[in-house]
Structure formats: C-alpha cells, structure tokens
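It is worth pausing here to work through a concrete case rather than discussing structure prediction in the abstract. The textbook approach is simple: state the sequence, then state the predicted structure, then interpret. We follow exactly that order.
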Amino acid sequence: MWLKLLSAITAWAAGESGGLPEAVVRELCESADAGEEAPVVKAHLLLIALQHNDGAGRVRELCGFSDLEAAVGDMRKALRELAQRNGISERPWAREWAKLARGDPAKFRETVGDLEHALAVRLFKYKFNNDELDAAERVLRELDKLEKELGLDKADAVAASWAARLAVVRSQGFHQYLEAAARFEEVWKGLQPLRPPLKRYAYRVAEYAVYLASADKVDEAERLLKSYRHVLWEEKKAAVAAELAVAMFGVRTDVGARTVAEAMGDELLPPVKLFWGLAAEEDVLWDCTSLRDPAMTLCVDLVLLYKNYGKAVARVRSLLKEYVGEETANTLDSAAVAELLAPTSAFAQFILMLMAAVDGGEEQAALHALRAMKGDPRPLAQRLYQEIYENCNNHVENCRLGLLKTFFFYI
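Step two, the predicted structure:
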C-alpha cells in the first residue's frame, strides 16, 4: 500500500498525473512526520509544492509549507540523516523504494541523493520561474555544490547549464546576451565525449546550437546540428524550438509546419493543419470530436472559420479580441487567427511565435505573446512575454533577444 501511494505521489510530483484527492493529501501531510519513511513522503510532497499550479498551492496550504526555501533546507538535512541511519537501507520499504526509483533495491543511498538533488533543482526552478533571480542564483550555488558532493556525471548535472540560462535571462541588450550565452560553449565542451544514453544530451545540443547561431557562427551551428541531430531529436519539442530559433539567424533546417504539427501533437488544435495544408476537413472534424469542451467547440469553429462560415467567424474573432483587442481581431486574416487560437499551451504558443519570426512576422509574434501571457502564470514568463510584445512591434534585434531569452527559459 505504501509503495502504491508513493508511486502516485511521485507521478504527481513529476507532473505525470492530475494529483490526489484533497482528503488523501491532507492525511499525507498530517502523517508526514511519523514513521521512518516519512521524510521520503514529505520530500515528494514538497516537490509538488514547488510548482506553479493550483495543486501546488493546495499542498503548500495543507502541509504548512509557508517558507519553501527553509522547508527544502530542513528536508535535505532530514534526507541525509536518513541515508546515514544504521540498517535503514535494508528495511523492506527502503528496498522497495530504491527498486521503484532506481531499479535496484540495493541503491537506497543513491536514491536518497537523487531525491535531495531533485529538491534542490526544483527550488531553483521555483525561484527562477517566480522571477526571484537573486534568490535563484543563491540556490544555484548550493545546487552546484551538491552536484559535486554527489559526484554526478556531467551529463546529469544541471547547475552549469542553468547558470548560463540565468545569465541570459538577466542580460540587457544583445552584447550582454552574447557574453552570457557564451557559457554554453564551455558546458558543451565539458560533456565530451558523449556517452549513452544520448537522450541526456538533447537539451545541451539545443542550447549550444542556438548560441552558435545567435553569435553569427552559422557554419558551426549547421555542422553541430548535422553531427548531433540524432541526439537533439531524442527530445522532439526541444528540437523543434531549437531548429526554429537557429533559423531566425539563417541556419538551414528542415523544420516546417508538418514537423511542428507532429512534434506538438495535442498542444495544437487540429484545425491549424487545415490552414497549413496538412489535413482534410473531414479528418480534422473527426479529431475535434475527441476533445472536450470548450476545446471541442473552438476546434469546430476553427474548421468553420476555414470554410468562412459567417456565424463561426464572428464567434472566433470575438474570442480573439479578448487577447489582442477588437480592431486587431477584425483585421487579421483567417490563417493568422487560427494560428493565434490553435495552441493549447503557452509553450506551443511560443513555438508559433518562433515560426512567425522566422517568416519575418514579428508583429504576429507579438500577438502570440499577448495570448501566451494568459496561458503561463509564472512571473518570469509574464515578464518575458511582455518584453516580446513590446519589442516585436518595433525593433527586430530586441524582438529576437526576447525570443532567445524565452527559448532558454523553456528549454
């Protein structure tokens, strides 16, 4: 029973499930200080609390996590004490947990180390996403120290990459950006030679390729992508974002509308494929029926927009004006309207921003930013999208800078 419950909490903490009933969460919070396995349960609850969603807020309230940084510090100490306790690694629950997390019941201490690392990473991301960049930098120094203590493989360590991303987000102007992003070269070279599993390196390929392209090292970026494309595409969404981002700077890639549609999957409503010439009406309408309202209604209306059905056109443009204003909503062509409304996530909206910028549609990218602000509540995302909106209407270089910062925020 304990293992099943821990599996459910772990899946929730990893964002792989919708959560647990409030009564169960309340009971877990109340019992998280009892029993030798309590620190493990409480640490996973804390991982959930360190997110930006309604479920996280509920866990913070029910578990009394009012000071998240202090709670992480206390929990890291408790986990270390647990790992050092005599005989604990041979307990049935400890072996079951190690087997669940690491695939080896004998690796209890390594599993505790993984959990402590996960807490430190999640705390950094929480501060980073919350736009508390000074606090994020402080936490990052602790994370770097922990990764060295744990002896993590460079492919599994993240502090150096996040330090570069933090510096990028803080940059003011393109010159400062280039100085900050140059750190990705050091990160990449420190990973050589790459060792399986190669999927661990996908994001590192993405960030280094985008740095090279933005630094006007187009030939180097193209050689990197040619040599490591198989690694990059282990993470399709990161690959699509990276190849669109480098294309802004003249790097040749094969990413087009079909690739974007396939990679984003259900993060784009099906009718956008009609406007991109990738699907037939009857197939798209069939796909719409598998959705739930309000997505299904919007999906059907976008198909009718494609057919220029009057009432649907009015409904869709009325919805769009909530994001971009009435005048703009009424002047955009149908394809632009569909592209603005098709994304079901802020990340998908960002991908279409990049597509627009690659095609020279900076003003369309600015409109995507307005809608993205409604879809991502994280304070740093809000600030970055505001920056994109303000700059993509009148300054191409600053528009690209905003898109680059947002790329390194997401990827």
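Step three, interpretation. Residues 108-129 form the longest helix (22 residues). The chain has a mean pLDDT of 91.
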